[in-house]
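Not sure how to ask, but would you mind making up any protein sequence you like and the tokens describing how it folds?
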Amino acid sequence: MGVSAPPTPTPVAVSHVPSYEPPPDAASDLQFGAFTAHGPWTLDRANLPWLVGLDGVRQRTRAQVPVLLKARRLPPGRRVIRTGRVLGGALLAWRLKEKRKGGEQSRAGVSRRLRIAFATLGPTYIKMGQIISSGEGIFPPELVGEFRQLRDRVPAEPFSVVRRIVESELGRPLSEVFAQFDEKPIAAASIAQVLGARLVSGEDVVVKVQRPDVEIRVRQDLAAMSWFAPHLMGRIPIAALANPPALVELFAETIVEELDFRLEAENMLDIARVLALTNQRAMVVPRPHPTLITKRVLVMERLSGFAWDDAVGMREAGIDTEAVVRAGMVAFLEGAMLHGVFHGDLHGGNLVVLPDGRTALLDHGITGRLDDVKRQAFLRLMLAGTTNDLRLQVQALCELGALPLDTDIDAVIRDLNLDGPVKDPTQMSADEMVAEIRNITKAMLAYGARMPKELMLFVKDMLFLDGALATLAPNLDLFATLTEVAMYFASAHGEQIANEIGIDPRRQAVDLGLYKASMGIADDRPSLTYAELQERRALIGKRMEERHKRRSRSGS
């Protein structure tokens, strides 16, 4: 459990976060938000007409979720008939062909057929598939792999439709607002598409336009999903892990707020505010327009730079890619743990590295928001991970809603063998690994484990940042970096953390035993680069593939 009453850690400088000093003539709105130094306009929070009354809008929007997901004795409307035909056909074909093969072939088969069915059913299901596709480590790998193919499979709306929506929402002809408006979109997603434009006043902007009738379709699809989900429990091999009803509930909580772009604009302001409060100027948020924002149209500052995975280009431009990913990690953790607001959909398409090395956060439709109870639970969870406090970590998971509040913590630790000897997966056979996963999954389900929305978004983002290390910082020492980050939090935020949860990180020794155990690594290993971690994962993957081939040849 770590060393009791250790000496106070030596304060550490924020050396892992690129320093940035705004120029003397920087825009005044940098005082309350992490924006670019000289934007196309200057924001005044007290004078944003679209911001008025949004607290009520957000509350009413969230209140719609249980109504949309209410239990129904009869199928909800005609949409459920088409959904049932498409999903039912996919599952029937799987049962007739792949299910009898069992194991990985069965899971691969049902994942492929569900992916095809989701693409056929349109934007709502494609959006759900895209969320699943970025949940590597949360959802079964077969499902994640298949659903990645849905990321770029949404056709754009005709420009005539885009024009009609923009003019209707802004109440003016396009030519009165924009001097130029691109007809070909920069990106076309399931809820909206994004187009480049130039205002008549000369500023280059990005315009996000909601698809026609998408809100009606989403409501119909959520009703259909919630009716079908309970019938899938225990019927397909991915259900035990993905839990269809819980997944539909999580998806509903996420997507309903995406349907109002005023809420997304407020998310942009709030995340920019948190970055400014924590002085993380290595991250910036595009400014939403002071007036050109409605429920279905969002005009914002246009930012450009290096693609997130263009490590070669960044290095050639003199950008420290290790510093980029470290800054992202620290800013993300500070937002979640100290202020309860964080970008909930980190992926390569939502991040752009500016020429000066700062990272621009794009697309704030999915934003994690934690009340104080859950935020402090996150604090305990992360603190427990760096002090090797197993009981505190399980307790925090209960407070987050991942386990029932009355869960017997000692029983969980005992039944999952969490305090037992570390099992190194690279030293286990594939059959042993599969058995271990099955035992853990069965035990977790028996305790009523679930994945709350906020925890799912948090874990999904952490997994993305983990993967980003492969491109941006493959030689980074993970243990040294985590220790440095933990000591930074103790030094910079120790007083706040101690006041809020009664544990002073400045007086806690950094002990990465839990983190190492989660990867099956002995506690006495001093260092691990991400490249070495990839080698371990590749070895495990190779053994699982060999097991799959062996079982296929034997017909078992």
User: Anything to note?
Assistant: The two ends are 44 Å apart (CA to CA). Residues 59-151+216-258 form one domain. The chain is about 55% helix and 10% strand. Residues 88 and 222 are 17 Å apart (CA to CA).
